[in-house]
Amino acid sequence: MYTDTAHVDPPSILQSAFSGEAPPLLAHKALRRDEFWREIPGYSNVSEADFRSHLFQQKHAVTNVRQLRDTLGQLVEDSFFEDLSAGMHHAPMALRISPYLLSLIDWSNPLGDPIRTQFIPLRSQQQPDHPMLRFDSLNEQGDSPVPGLTHRYRDKALFLPIDSCPVYCRFCTRSYAVGTDTDLVGEKLKLHASLARWDRAFEYIESRPELEDIVVSGGDTFNLKADHLQLIGERLLKMPNIRRLRFATKGLCVMPQKILSDNAWFDALTRVVELSRKLHKDVVVHTHFNHPNEITGITHDAMNRMTERGIVVRCQSVLQRTVNTEPSIMQLHVRRLSYINIHPYYVYFHDMVPGVEDLRTTLQTGLDLEKHVRGATAGFNTPAFVVDTMGGGGKRDAHSHELYNRKTGIAVFTSPSVRPGKKFLYFDPLASLDEEHQWRWSQPLERRAMMDEALDAVNA
Fold this sequence. Notes:
Structural class: alpha/beta
CATH class of the largest domain: Alpha Beta
Mean pLDDT: 92
Strand order of the largest sheet: 1-2-3-4-5-6-7-8-9
CATH superfamily of the largest domain: Aldolase class I
Number of helices: 16
Number of strands: 12
CATH topology of the largest domain: TIM Barrel
CATH architecture of the largest domain: Alpha-Beta Barrel
């Protein structure tokens, strides 16, 4: 039977879940500061100084099944690695996970662990893709006037200077371009760092006076060289039309050590932020955490350094089945982020990405979850739950659907400021529907009839 929550017995408040309606009152302050990595055979002799170095984290990232087996030793059975090997053939992203993240996984229960779920694909848990899934489901390439730049909203553009990340998430919405090729995705769009390509993007941005807000993403800005980070920031800030920059990185979640030990990169970011203040403009960092277990004392130390430099950080989480759909987990997640000065900004409904249907949730799940989160902390630290609509309609508040048929799993959204007159559909995962409607989705004519019925109901 389909459920949007995980059934995992928690060994402690620092692990997978809580029972009851809300987490313990001060649980958000309980950040791990033990030498947790020593529980991993491959890291048992690693000193704290080495583990807190970004160079160690980069050098020892696990990128294949053999490395993982060597690192974990006898912590898990051979069947786990067989499951992973099979899962990699149906995964949109290559395997790349930092020692830090690997050490935070509860290897006594890897099947139910929320961090393992996000980064290490198992064939036994994968589900068939939804029949309406489309490559680049958000139509970023369709709204791309030059390679690596998406201009969808009137005053905002998305700039992708790089196509690599310190760690690869299974569920990456940009799996069409990020990371190395996989069996599932095949040859990806290449957006390697290139000054010539960047110049084309800069020229376009400069030519559009309505553009005021640029999101610099990728890939991940953590992987930009320090001088490239500063070059991009200064070049954009010196354009008269640009008022706001957002540097997007998952690095604070997966490799906070970089903030603590890569002084060249961190100083370059600081200089860009300081320049923005002198120019009376705004530069912030947008990061991405999905579960409270991802936040440790090392994260807190990194955020303390960001706070000392006056760098504002916001978080965009992704709603994922068995990871963060339990109200107590999301409440704790939001409060823990707030505690270390990361502002919870968005909770995205999971995009339709190949190979990760097992992580998607129903729209109703998020609607119900938002009720539990609102009031758990201050309003300015309460995220908006949003659907980034398929086909390029942009982000819509989940509550703003024009229609939601829970039997067919179809929701209809409009986006009058982005695509006037057009309608955009969201689809619940098929496993959440009854047998009749799962069968209807398997039949092309029935499938079309259900969608037409939903669109006609909105038009009526």
